[in-house]
Amino acid sequence: MDTEFAVNPEGLHKAIDLMGHHFDKPEVLNLPVQLPELGMGSDAVLNALAPGILGGAARLGEASSFAHMDPPTPWISWAMTLWNASLNQNLLHPATAPVARQMEQQVLAWLAPFFGMNGGHMTPGSTVANLTALWSARDCAGVTQVIASDGAHLSIAKAAHILGLSYLSVPIDAHGAMDQTLLPDDLSKSALVLTAGSTSTGAIDPFVLAGRAAWTHVDAAWAGPLRLSKHAHLLGGIESADSVAISAHKWLFQPKESALVLFRDTEKAHAALSFGGAYLATPNIGVLGSHGATATALLATLLAWGREGVAQRIEHCMGLAHSLRNFIATDERLELYAEPQTGIVVWRPKNENAFDYVTQRLPVGSTSTTSILGKRWFRNVAANPSADINALIASIDRALAEPV
Ligand SMILES: *Cc1c(COP(=O)(O)O)cnc(C)c1O
Question: Where are the beta strands (DSSP E) in 96-231?
């Protein structure tokens, strides 16, 4: 047997040891311009790439990390990802991946009921989950139009474009949610997309609208996991949707690429999304062809933490966002965009001229920026349970000091 394909404890231990190593600054990777004729060997590759790959990446679990929707991931998910990479199962083929298929079914059976859905499948992200859901809306409900708010994720317009559906964007209200007074009366040919936690502001669209259109899809990429927490009521009404998208690589702390598309009537939706093929023992459902055992990392995390462990981490994140909100709302130099609903705090200095120097002074990875109706705002996202919110508040305070 070619030993490159065998378990190499020494090499793998070394890879793990390097993960704990501190690399000062990413070294410029000195990579060959052309594909090398001769390989350097796997062991040498670890040393060659560690400073760049491990040293060059933002550490999402660091105390200052509070800028984006990308969370740190638990070590159990790394272990499962390693197993997955070594086994390379393909969920297309039940014969080679019987247990992996069962694991995906199990994860769906555990999570779907929190959303009033009865099943679905995993996708590499909510971009694909949204496309898949709108594909079933088109073929199950005969919709010709997609309606979403100006605050919706770009993947909704992208999906409408791919599917040949027209796209109507409804303005947002002062809190970033869909302004329902501007919605057309006739929704009988429409897929209505409601966002649960918009990417920019974390706003939740009015869920009273769920069920009013020929198809209702909830894009819960970010805030969906709140359903497992004491904040579940914030997404009340989601069970009236026909489909839901959730990115597990956001608030379920999973390595990319892990997401779910859920359906209220999975049998019907999957029938519309199924294609058979001579070499396939079961039909191919959804957008993907070959599909890996991503579910094992999610299942392992859920098994390790339980609902309670997931909830506790998300609730802690919500608390961090609330502390930041309290600082912003009571500091007279600052303006809060709106009350944060789903762990996203959007704010800016009242003095517009301060925006640039505050941007430069804030620690890298602590804060992102967003543009709403042509205005610039700072944005903090509570995806990191280990964030030090007092340190962040102190750094915002320092950044606001007038330059001398
Ligand atoms: C992140 C996000 C998406 C896209 O999800 P990916 O997992 O990045 O493909 C869609 N909608 C919303 C609201 C998001 O925040």
Answer: 119-123, 145-149, 166-170, 190-195, 215-219
**Is any atom of ligand 1 closer than 6 Å to the C-beta of 247?**
yes
- Tens digits of residue pLDDT in 247-297: 999 999 999 999 999 999 999 999 999 988 777 778 899 999 999 999 999
Contact 362, 223 (CB under 8 A): no
- Contact present, 243 and 218 (Cβ < 8 Å): yes
Select from 69, 70, 155 the residue to mutate for testing ligand 1; criterion: most ligand atoms less than 8 Å from CB: 155
**Peptide bond preceding 62: is omega within 30 degrees of 0, i.e. cis?**
no
At residue 281, the pLDDT reads 78
φ and ψ of 62, to 5 deg: -70, 155
How far away, in angstroms, is 247 Cα from ligand 1 center?
7
Give the span between the Cα atoms of 89 and 85, in whole angstroms: 8
Instruction: Name the band, by pLDDT with cuts 50, 70 and 90, for residue 354.
Output: very high
**Ligand 1 atom with the shortest distance to the CA of 247:** 7
Ligand 1 center to residue 156 CA distance, Å? 10
Question: What domains does the chain contain, in order, with CATH numbers?
Answer: 3-57 (no CATH), 88-304 (3.40.640.10), 306-401 (3.90.1150.170)
Mean of pLDDT values over 59-83: 96
Average pLDDT over residues 219-235: 98
- Could you identify the atom of ligand 1 that is nearest to the CA of residue 153? 11
Q: What is the pLDDT of residues 73-109, one digit of tens each?
A: 999 999 999 999 999 999 988 888 888 999 999 999 9
